[in-house]
Specification:
This protein is of the alpha+beta class and 242 residues long. The chain has one domain: 3-Layer(aba) Sandwich (Extracellular Endonuclease, Chain A). It is built from 4 helices and 10 strands. The protein is elongated and about 90 Å long. About 4% of the residues have low confidence.
């Protein structure tokens, strides 16, 4: 009789343990389903120093929970990290943001509005590299990839854009100094005449998933609500209207 009681206790205890494990597994699965993006972001935060990332994405994804990071405005020695975003205004007060893909390449820049740099005179990082021909600039990590390239700002210095890896791509010197600069000149003229520049976006496109030099840029912004859209190839060819 006593042996039967012990057997029953073991049976019920085992049954309870199995049910408990099942409940825990179901609860855990439901939690993971609800918080999957947060879990991915946490894991990426642990591993984004390496090439390995959980979320393989080579385009900007507005639904993805990018990890926000901060770099010094004139940091020319640190590359951007995969699947992150960073405020790319020098004073951190403007809503300018850049986003990277799984390879740490800048793929998207957006600004709710664009303003000039205010009272600051001169270029932000002149003391470190006063021109694109300065050797320090040419040796900056990830920027200059061939002899015809400049450090090309995605949001210009004149609009308080930083000079770190989140706002710089390698741009052909004509693309940078003539074509992209002409867009900046137009925006500056609009601002000087009291117009509002809103919904500024640049999508940075690469030829392959391994290239670090952009193939072309899709540029979009509004002037007092009127949309302007351009495509600019990174080979010195003229700007085209989309």
């Amino acid at each position: 009789m006593e042996q039967n009681k012990n057997s029953n206790r073991i049976f019920y205890f085992s049954l309870f343990a199995i049910l408990l494990v099942i409940v825990l597994l179901i609860t855990g699965a439901m939690y993971i389903d609800r918080h999957w993006n947060d879990i991915q972001s946490y894991i990426n935060g642990l591993f984004y120093e390496t090439e390995y990332t959980i979320h393989e994405n080579y385009q900007y994804d507005p639904n993805y929970n990018y990890i926000e990071v901060y770099y010094e405005p004139c940091d020319v020695s640190t590359t951007a990290k995969p699947l992150t975003k960073s405020n790319i205004s020098a004073d951190q007060q403007h809503p300018y943001y850049a986003y990277t893909d799984s390879k740490g390449r800048v793929v998207h820049v957006e600004a709710e509005y664009i303003e000039d740099k205010g009272e600051r005179s001169g270029r932000l990082c002149d003391a470190m590299y006063p021109s694109n021909q300065n050797q320090t600039a040419k040796e900056a990590i990830g920027y200059i990839t061939n002899s015809d390239d400049n450090r090309g700002h995605l949001i210009g210095d004149r609009f308080d854009g930083v000079s770190n890896a989140y706002n710089i791509t390698a741009q052909h010197e004509i693309t940078n100094q003539k074509e992209y600069s002409s867009i900046e000149d137009d925006i500056a003229n609009f601002l000087n005449n009291g117009y509002k520049i809103t919904d500024f976006m640049v999508d940075v496109q690469y030829k392959t998933i391994t290239d670090r030099r952009p193939q072309y840029y899709n540029i979009y912004f509004k002037v007092n609500g009127r949309a302007y859209q351009y495509r600019l190839y990174n080979d010195g060819s003229p700007l085209t209207t989309e």
